[in-house]
Amino acid sequence: MPVVPIERNDHSEPNAEAFIFGFEFPPEGAVHRIDWSAAKATAACPPSGWRWLHLNRLSDETRDWLETSSDLDETVISALLQAETRPRCLAHDDGVLLNLRGINHNPGAEPEDMISVRMWATKNLVISMRSYPVKAIHDVRELTASGAGPGSPGDLLVMIAASLVDRIEPVVEQLNDEADEFEEKLLKEDEDVPPSELAEFRRSILLLRRYIQPQRDAMVQLQREGRLLIQADQVTDLREIADRVTRIAEELDTIRDRAAVIQDQISGQRQEELNQRLLALSVISALFLPLTFLTGLLGMNLAGIPFSHSPWAFGFVVALSVALAAALLIYLRVKRWI
User: I need a labelling partner for 218 at 20 to 30 A (CA). Which of 19, 182, 212, 309 fits?
Assistant: First the structure.
């Protein structure tokens, strides 16, 4: 029979209550929901079976419970509450610390601003922490509530990792489509690519790439570090997830390179436009240069200069101008500027 979990802050702000939802997986019998008011006074690990608790990292109640009632190691508590994280997997005592990143689907947020999911998993306990709602986690919650949830802590880790990747792939496909649109605009003479849009596009790619490669490394590390939790069939699933993350990383690299080519093409087009305008100005200058010389020559005021009354003075000025022009031409040719 489907289980409806207690969930009081599904779309809450960071300062909401500590408990989001939780499930109890007894050795025998059906999965049932956890009453936080009764569970928070006890240790994190259940006396039998295993348990999944999903908590709000930013809540003071979460910190107090972890430090006073959970019976977790200080290293584990510090890792779960750490302010800044990157995807990683670390074995510690009888469990593993796993940090992953998911797409941010919260209102007003950009998908590429990936939000973290911190997890501590042993044979009888999984604690997951978030700062803001993560839809991938709630996808797994719905499966668990419907009776199609995980059968073990290792299975839960695999389901969460797969759900996170499921949410990342559509975003990467959308970026690929945007790259196609930019390329199509470049082929149309009557359409321009706004520099701000292309800059924001490249920023999105960089933000996603920042976490995708470490996420793949975390999947590979989980296969090695989680031997006590991960079974043979789950190792196969983790390899498939790692392969999917690798494909995502490669796709992001391709999109990044395409964006760089688009930027180069835009820069080349603008440089070509500038060169054409400079050429037009040069042609205009060349057309008016002889006229400028003639008007300057004929408008000279020779009064007061030596030989101003000599009949050969004007011819001398013309000859001197020609000699200077020839000398300048020879100089430019020697310098290979023309």
Answer: 19
Terminal alpha carbon distance of the chain? 87
The reply to whether 308 falls in a domain is no
Percent of the chain residues past pLDDT 90, beyond the cut? 35
153-187 and 135-145 are packed helices; what angle lies between their axes, rounded to 10 degrees? 140
Q: Structural domain of residue 141, as residue ranges?
A: 19-268
24's enclosing H/E stretch is: strand 19-25
**Residue 141 · residue 54 · CB < 8 Å:** yes
pLDDT digits (tens, 9 = 90+) for 108-137: 667 667 889 999 999 999 999 998 889 999
**Considering the domain boundaries, does residue 213 fall inside one?**
yes
Number of H helices, E strands in the chain: 8, 7
Q: Nearest-CA neighbor of 14 among 109, 139, 130, 100?
A: 130
Residue 197 scores a pLDDT above 50: yes
Instruction: Pull the structure tokens for residue 121.
Output: 């998993």
Which domain CATH number covers 235?
A: 3.30.460.20
Residue 80 inside a domain? The answer is: yes
Per the CB < 8 A criterion, the answer to whether 153 and 122 are in contact is yes
pTM of the full predicted structure? 0.78
Tokens 């706004």 locate to 194
Q: What's the domain count of the chain?
A: 1
